[in-house]
Design brief:
Elements (H helix, E strand, L loop, with lengths): L1 H11 L5 H22 L14 H12 L4 H15 L3 H24 L8 H29 L5 H32 L7 H22 L20 H32 L10 H49 L3 E6 L4 E4 L1 H7 L3 H4 L4 H4 L2 E2 L12 H8 L3 E7 L7 E12 L2 E11 L1 H38 L6 H31 L8 E3 L1 H18 L3 E6 L6 E3 L1 H17 L6 E8 L3 E7 L21 H6 L7 H11 L3 E7 L3 E9 L16
Parallel strand pairs: 8-10
Antiparallel strand pairs: 1-2, 1-6, 3-4, 4-5, 5-6, 7-9, 10-11, 11-13, 12-13
Length: 680
């Protein structure tokens, strides 16, 4: 309660000082003079005029100066009416009504969110509260005061009220809107020569048109009311002002039209001059009110639209500036593959200019290759994968720019989804040449270290094996158990070192591919024989199903065995005892598809995207076999892809996994020099 009281005191009770008094006197004078002028226009009952600018002046004053200037409005209205002949208490009532009209109008409008800014909401709030509602209040208080004072009879009450309300409403709509719009927009910073010339030209045309339509100054004859269409020829000009010059331009255009049309009507000229002046002014003010409201609303809509467009352009420019400053290459593509946006980093890396990229197809600008320099097939291209799967595609590729100097990148391509619909993709890529060089150095070290470790490990293997075979009769049970443990762990170390050597050769691009004419089914049978002992130890059955139309293929038998061995060993290892592993070979003319499926533990869905990552093992796999290296599937994927094929899988937790390997029937591409990968 105290806060409300303090706020009321601050807003409505002025602090008397010289500046306040000067402003108060100035406002009082302006109000008084314009009110006296308005009463000269054939006031109904002597007090209600159809032309009443003070309402607009009062509303603008309260809005910009504050509620504490209400005394100027009250005193101005009081003295105008008292000096016109209204009794003292009647003049008090009229002054009170006119003061409340401005104060309550602004207060209610602000209560519902009105501000001085342009916009459709503010315009509608102003029209509703300041033009319609509170002018009715002022008209009711004023005319009732005149009626109670005996100045207006009951018979004249309605006509007086209507004239009072129309005059106040038009004063708020035309004069108030004009002052508010100019006060909000007046700034030398907005001065532009071409726009000023256009404004001068427009207002010259507007004035001439109004003089022609509403007066006889430019016409030797009066415009007859039987031809009312000429009155509405002013509408295109008002629309022009609303579209081109905003709220202030539209308000000034309406004000000019109002002044000239009132002048013509008072002089008994123009289309509104056929009856009594008060009747003519009522018709005219109805016409002016319509064009004023339409212009005001139209300019607000246009201004709001332009403001929104400007904000959108600023946001777009800001987003583009951010994208241009990113060090990674960024390319935005629509669903048809057309490049919509490309940042500076991408232009630099690809060796192209903006004009050569925008509007062109992505795959004609961004040439993606695999590690060995073969362009990716359509179904393996990340752009196609992202669109078809609606998922983010992340992988390492090689780009070949216009200067033909290919370089490695890590690429993330994500679908752009708007309203549950894919509307394009965004490709973000980064040059990883330095990282590749660092990895190559590490791989060199691993290769050297693994090679040096392999010799002593092999020696340990043969000696421990010899001790188990030849020295067994001379060893105690405990000693033999120790030897077997040494042999077992040595085997595991040899396998790990072999895997590390294979990985280092793959990453360095130094592994040999030596294709020969091969019967894939025969190689598969040999491998199944090799793993049979392991399968039997876990009571696992391997079921074969080969396509009899499978042709001979140019392939490296050593690499084929490494692929099958890793996949079969995994299927056996992660299946429950007495389960069945299925091995299928199918020929589909262009490719030979190998399928190895099990009914084991499966791969958790949230870890499936990492399954071919180096050193990665799922949590359930580690629980079953803590000693795995996490290199097998990485090796499989690397061999398959560098041989021109591709590998994928499907899996469901606790139901099993199925791995698919597709190799082209055209065979592997010969590659050398290099070292053979180790099959053990």
């Amino acid at each position: 309660m105290r806060k409300i009281k303090n706020k009321f005191s601050k807003d409505f009770i002025p602090r008397i000082n010289s500046i306040y008094l000067v402003k108060l006197l100035l406002l009082f004078t302006i109000y008084y003079v314009t009110a006296k002028l308005g009463l000269k226009f054939d006031a109904v009952s002597g007090f209600a005029t159809l032309v009443w600018p003070p309402t607009g002046i009062a509303i603008a004053a309260i809005l910009f100066l504050g509620y504490k200037y209400w005394p100027a409005i009250f005193l101005g209205a009081f003295f105008v009416n008292f000096s016109t002949g209204a009794p003292f208490w009647v003049a008090i009532g009229i002054g009170l009504g006119n003061m409340l009209e401005a104060v309550l109008g602004i207060w209610l409008a602000k209560r519902y969110g009105f501000t001085k800014e342009e916009g459709l909401r503010n315009t509608l709030l102003f029209i509703f509260f300041c033009v319609f509602i509170n002018t009715m209040l002022a008209a009711t208080i004023g005319v009732t005061s005149l009626w109670l004072g005996g100045t207006v009879s009951s018979a004249a009450y309605q006509a007086t009220w209507l004239a009072w309300w129309v005059g106040d409403a038009l004063g708020a709509l035309i004069v108030g809107n004009l002052i508010i719009s100019f006060r909000a927009e007046l700034s030398l910073k907005k001065f532009k020569l071409t726009r000023t010339i256009e404004e001068i030209l427009f207002f010259c045309i507007l004035i001439i048109s109004n003089l022609f339509i509403f007066t006889d100054f430019l016409s030797m004859r009066k415009i007859d009311l039987n031809n009312p269409i000429l009155v509405y020829t002013i509408f295109p000009l008002l629309i022009w002002s609303s579209l081109r010059f905003g709220r202030s331009g539209a308000a000034l255009a309406v004000f000019v039209t109002s002044i000239i049309s009132i002048l013509g009507t008072v002089l008994k000229q123009g289309p509104f001059s056929t009856g009594e002046l008060s009747h003519n002014l009522l018709l005219l003010q109805g016409y002016v009110g319509v064009i004023a409201a339409i212009s005001m609303i139209l300019s607000a809509v246009v201004t709001e639209r332009l403001k929104t467009e400007s904000e959108l352009i600023n946001e777009r420019n800001k987003d583009e500036a951010i994208l241009q400053s990113i060090g990674e290459g960024v390319v935005v593509i629509d669903t048809n593959g057309i490049i919509l946006m490309i940042n500076q980093a991408a232009q630099t890396m690809l060796g192209i200019e903006l004009k050569d990229a925008i509007g062109h197809h992505y795959e004609k600008i961004v040439h993606i290759e695999d590690k060995i320099g073969i362009p990716l097939k359509e179904k393996r291209r990340p752009f196609i994968l992202a669109l078809s799967s609606n998922k983010v595609i992340t992988d390492n590729y090689y780009l070949r720019p216009r200067n033909n100097k290919r370089f490695p990148v890590t690429m993330n391509i994500a679908p752009i989804i708007f309203k549950d619909k894919v509307v394009g993709v965004i490709d973000v890529f980064r040059d990883i040449t330095h990282e590749i060089e660092v990895d190559a150095a590490k791989s060199e070290f691993v290769s050297l270290a693994s090679h040096q470790l392999r010799t002593p490990l092999t020696t340990m293997k043969w000696y421990s094996h010899a001790l188990m075979q030849e020295g067994a009769p001379n060893l105690s049970t405990k000693q033999l158990e120790y030897i077997k443990e040494i042999y077992h762990n040595n085997q595991r170390m040899v396998g790990l070192v072999n895997s590390l050597l294979n990985v280092s050769r793959i990453e360095l691009g130094r592994f040999l591919i030596k294709p020969v004419s091969l019967d894939i089914r025969k190689v598969a049978n040999e491998l199944i024989h090799d793993v049979k002992t392991y399968a039997d130890s876990r009571n696992i059955t391997i079921q074969k199903q080969y396509d009899i139309t499978t042709p001979l293929v140019e392939a490296d038998p050593n690499l084929i065995k490494i692929i099958f061995q890793n996949l079969l060993n995994n299927a056996i290892k992660y299946s429950k005892e007495h389960a069945t592993v299925h091995f299928r070979i199918k020929n589909n003319n262009k490719e030979i598809i190998f399928t190895i499926s099990d009914t084991g533990c499966g791969i958790p869905k949230d870890q499936q995207d990492k399954i071919f990552t180096k050193m990665f093992r799922t949590e359930n796999a580690r629980a079953i076999d803590p000693e795995g290296s996490g290199l097998g599937l990485y090796i499989v994927k690397s061999i398959v892809e560098q041989s021109g094929g591709h590998v994928w899988f499907s899996s469901e937790i606790n139901k099993g996994s199925t791995f698919y390997v597709a190799l082209p029937t055209a065979g592997m591409v010969k590659r050398g020099p290099g070292s053979r990968l180790i099959y053990s």
